[in-house]
Amino acid sequence: MDITEKPIVVGTDGSDLAAVAVRWAVRDAARRGLPVRIVHVVDRRPYGTPAAGKVDPRAYAGERMLDHAARTAGECAPDVAVATVLAEGAPGEVLSEEAAAAAELVVGCRGRDGCAGALLGSVPVRTAGHAPGAVVVVRPEPAGSCREVVVGADGSAGCEPALAFAFEQARARGCPLRAVHAWREPQDLMAGPVRGAGPAADESARARCRPVAERIAAWRERFPDVEVREDLRHADPVPALVDASGGAELLVVGARGLSAVGSLLLGSVSRGVLHHAHCPVAVVR
């Protein structure tokens, strides 16, 4: 199946953040010429299946949530084709399965059952760690207007899917792409942008940055209409990416980077930015 035939899947549970996710998904679909598939998952595990002949209140509520989400989508982007799906199972598992046939999966950072103090709910953590492709975790819509896509690049082959997704998003939005490469030597406590003297002038720093520059250069050739801003920082990756997200429409990272432990499905950098970024985050496997 070609990606142009794949829908953008968005999960809804009727919460305010789910409505934000639906609006984000349909706007992205409108830019990319894709359909949208809105999914609500009925989780029966704590309750079981209702007796025969009885109305299932959870399924009824789910249908109402889907109707409301479809209306929200139509008001936001009336030209986007929208389908709704009522599914059963564990929400994280069902949405991860839906992602297998999707251009991307979009979820809110917290659901209806998430506590107010929680930075990130269980569903976005589950889907970002398990779902194939890109998972976009949205936050409340910012009051200001940002005009930049940020991508974390570490020079490894593992960052290629993230770069591909980021370049495509920047082209669809008609905005610049900021490629952030941040590193920190264990013996060096200094941190800050790499400019002029200091780390940038050091040969080891240049060698560290060379693979990143080469990968970005290859993507520049494929997307010549995208303005690229290379942002090299001698700093911890998570704070550097979180800082860059303050002026971004979207932050894109890989699921695992060079320093990720092989047994972990979600690396420390992707997990860190999911918890603390100021904009929507796309984790690309």
From TrEMBL:
InterPro entries xref list: Rossmann-like_a/b/a_fold, Universal_stress_UspA, UspA
Domain UspA as annotated: residue spans: 6-139, 147-285
One Pfam family named in its UniProt record: Usp
PANTHER family cross-referenced by the UniProt entry: STRESS RESPONSE PROTEIN NHAX (PTHR46268), UNIVERSAL STRESS PROTEIN UP12 (PTHR46268:SF6)
Family the UniProt entry places it in: Belongs to the universal stress protein A family.
Protein name, as recorded: Universal stress protein
